[in-house]
Specification:
Elements lengths: L2 E6 L6 H7 L2 E3 L2 E4 L2 E4 L6 H9 L5 E3 L3 H13 L4 E5 L8 H9 L5 E4 L6 H16 L4 H12 L2 E6 L4 H5 L5 H9 L6 E2 L9 E2 L7 H16 L4 E8 L2 H12 L6 E4 L2 H7 L3 E8 L5
Parallel strand pairs: 1-2, 1-6, 6-7, 11-12
Antiparallel strand pairs: 3-4, 3-5, 8-9, 8-13, 9-10, 11-13
Helix pairs in contact: 2-11, 3-4, 5-6, 9-10
GO molecular function, one term: lipid binding
Keywords: Lipid-binding
Protein name: DegV family protein
């Protein structure tokens, strides 16, 4: 049995980073004006942030179909028998379903599930998968361990405004306008509880400080009785990211800091904060 792990750029990994880790990589597409970029290949996160600062409203799409086919052509030639497919939530993109559909043309077994998330959680699951493959763990056991961790994961996004999410169709324009009029900082959950879609917290919070405090307090309660990886991500919002990190550190909880990847920042805009946790994968 020869196993490969495929991940997309929703994981905040570039192609180079993925390849160094032993992962196969598929880039989502980002459209800015009349140009189309491959996230993590010819578009890096900081460059996307610059475009956002300059007022551009990027759109995104799933990886190019030709690249998916080329990847499976190569894997078949390499006599790969099984693939572990880790992609961003099906509630955010049709990437997973599209890859599965194309894979049916090949004699390769695809093992996948909806992670109901993206960003750091996606990256962690992909890196855990490749490490377990290298350890020689049986593929069914790998999938069971990944799913078990996913069941104990959660994430929140707090953008400065909802204009990018509304334009990208991830949130209604009415909800975005109302939040803007009331000067509400939205707390948006993306997890299994929301079926991997962007769900809005019911409580109205009027400052980013209060939003971060509310999310961190809730998460600290969630993870106090287990071993978890905790991530604080931002798109040029260093002050608030540091605030979130400090709240966790005050409770003795280690935090990983990351930038919100380009394909997700296209929908959150700059000034956004993401906070995620996931239970550690057994053996990782």
């Amino acid at each position: 049995m020869k196993i490969k792990v495929i991940v997309d750029s929703g994981s905040c990994l570039s192609q180079q980073q993925a390849q160094r880790a032993g992962l196969e990589f598929l880039p989502l597409q980002v459209m800015i004006e009349d140009k189309t970029y491959l996230d993590g290949i010819d578009l890096m996160t900081e460059s996307l942030y610059d475009d956002l600062d300059n007022g551009f409203m990027p759109q995104t799409s799933l990886p190019p179909l030709a690249m998916i086919k080329d990847l499976f052509d190569r894997l078949e030639k390499e006599q790969v028998s099984d693939v572990i497919l880790i992609t961003l939530s099906s509630g955010l993109s049709s990437t997973n379903a599209t890859i599965q559909a194309i894979s049916k043309e090949y004699q390769i077994n695809v093992h996948t599930f909806d992670i109901y998330s993206t960003l750091a959680v996606e990256q962690y699951l992909a890196l855990s998968a490749i490490r377990l493959v290298k350890q020689g763990v049986e593929i069914d056991e790998i999938m069971n361990r990944l799913k078990e961790s996913m069941e104990h994961s959660k994430g929140y996004l707090m953008p400065e405004n909802l204009n990018h999410l509304a334009k990208g169709g991830r949130l209604s324009s009415g909800a975005a306008k109302l939040a803007g009029m009331l000067k509400i900082v939205p707390i948006l959950e993306v997890s299994k509880d929301t079926q991997g879609k962007v769900g809005k917290d019911g409580e109205k919070v009027r400052t980013m400080t209060k939003a971060i405090g509310k999310v961190c307090k809730s998460m600290i309660q969630d993870i106090k009785d287990g071993e978890y990886e905790v991530y604080v991500l931002d798109s040029r919002s260093e002050k608030y990211a540091q605030m979130a990190e400090d709240l966790f550190k005050d409770e003795g909880i280690e935090v990983h800091r990351m930038s919100i990847g380009a394909v997700i920042a296209s929908h959150t805009g700059n000034g956004a904060i993401g906070i995620q946790y996931i239970k550690k994968v057994k053996g990782h």
